[in-house]
Amino acid sequence: MERPTPLRVVHTTDDADIVARCVAGDPIAQRRLFDREYPRVHATLYRVLGSNQAIDDVLQETFLAVFRALGQFRGDSSLTTWIDRCAVHAAYAHLRKGRGKRHLELVPESVESGAPSVERRVLAREAARRLYATLDNLDAKQRVAFALHAIDGRPLHEVAQLMDATLVATKARVWRARRYVTQRAKVDSVLAELVERADTTEREEGT
């Protein structure tokens, strides 16, 4: 699986100003913050949950948490990181309730010039479905850590920060999840091809 590039946004807007205005109840500032952060939060949840049907509910829970707790934001991290942490916590809560069972196609619907053949696209969708079906069997923390690192492409130290975990614990969660996915791939040729492509990409990026 070719991992998507994580969305990293550098804002020129003064975060302290927009936070203050949101906390004061300014609806224009609140809408501006929502519109600014929505694409990245949606993409993160998309990759963690693998479910389009679940995303709307978890997005709503994320931004409710953001605006409810925004007055507590002290700038110890970037506002973007703080909001990402809210999204990760919402996704984790959702998975713990056992509702992350519907799977999304992680490939575009439209056929573009130079795109893979229809057969390859169908296999990619099926591989993604099988991957998320496999992840459904993991402990929620292992799944979130694996998805953030292996699918969303975030470095381990960032995953640890988003999950309020130590780096050691995060590495262990990713390793256990990866081991389980690899074991399942041994008896599933479609999943095995996806895992092999991901491993190849990771090795190339590490060189």
Produce the secondary structure layout.
Elements: H1 15-23, H2 27-49, H3 52-69, H4 79-96, H5 118-135, H6 140-151, H7 156-162, H8 167-185, H9 189-206
Task: Kindly summarize this structure in a few lines.
By secondary structure, this protein is mostly helical. It contains 9 helices and no strands.
Comma- or semicolon-separated keywords:
207 residues, mainly alpha, Rna Polymerase Sigma Factor, Chain: A
- Total tally of structural domains: 2
Specify the CATH architecture of the largest domain: Orthogonal Bundle
Instruction: Assign the CATH class of the largest domain.
Output: Mainly Alpha
Show unreliable segments: 7-13, 103-111
SSE order: HHHHHHHHH
Relative strand content: under 5%
Average pLDDT value? 83
Strand tally, please? 0
- Calculate the terminal CA-CA distance, rounded to whole Å: 18 Å
Question: Based on helices, strands and strand pairing, what is the structural class?
Answer: mainly alpha
Folded structure, characterized:
By secondary structure, this protein is mainly α. It folds into 2 domains: 82 residues, Rna Polymerase Sigma Factor, Chain: A (Orthogonal Bundle), CATH 1.10.1740.10; 89 residues, Orthogonal Bundle (Arc Repressor Mutant, subunit A), CATH 1.10.10. Helix 3 crosses helix 4 and helix 6 crosses helix 8. The radius of gyration is 18 Å and the shape is elongated. It starts with 14 loop residues before the first helix and ends with a helix. The relative contact order is 0.13.
